[in-house]
Amino acid sequence: MICLTTKFSNSEIVRTRDPKVLEGFDAVLDVGGVYDPSRDRYDHHQKGFEEVFGYGFNTKLSSAGLVYKHFGKEIIAKELQLGEDHPNVQRLFLAIYKNFMEAIDAIDNGINQFDTDKPPRYVNTTNLSSRVGRLNLDWMDPNQSPEKENEAFQQAMAVAGSEFLDSVRFHAKSWLPARSIVMECIADRYDTDPSGEIMVLKRFTPWKLHIFELEEEMKVDPPIKYVLYESLD
């Protein structure tokens, strides 16, 4: 992710835990035991680390979450070709954290999805963290060389980076336009029915992603009870 920024776009990725080697790097991620954005140090393993994303999110950040917290707006703004202070950049910054990044933070920090001590009813190994984990060298592989490890690491970076960009582009090209349509239809609901409880979509839109959040944001009262749209048949 950090390579998507202007500052680090041409950076070389080096894997090491050697403190002396780390000292000379422009940025250090996920190792080193230091979180200091002024020096581009983004580790989360050190004792006492409790950094969260903010904006109402309370999940402790992983190194990926730290990078997103400090560089996410820049990456999103470049994708949208807007300034970082544009409202749509802020909307996507929060939405992508909620819908993509927070799960990575939680899994990396061993935080359960539900507040219960009961064991899960099934095992889920299809999430991004699991898929990246499976790219580690198998212990039965006779070739455990550093070169082979680096090859696997490059594959993992490609998978994670691709899925992050897919999320950014989905939110930019699909999620955000749908939100605008639903917002407009909510605003026009009294033109449909004087009760204000019926919303008509002008075109098919994935409205369920947005309606509850927009009802709260737009202080819709009474709440919408019916959503109508033309059949696709």
From TrEMBL:
Xref: InterPro entries: MYG1_exonuclease
Cross-referenced Pfam families = MYG1_exonuc
Name the GO cellular-component terms.
Answer: cytoplasm; nucleus
UniProt record similarity statement: Belongs to the MYG1 family.
| Name of the molecule in the record | Uncharacterized protein
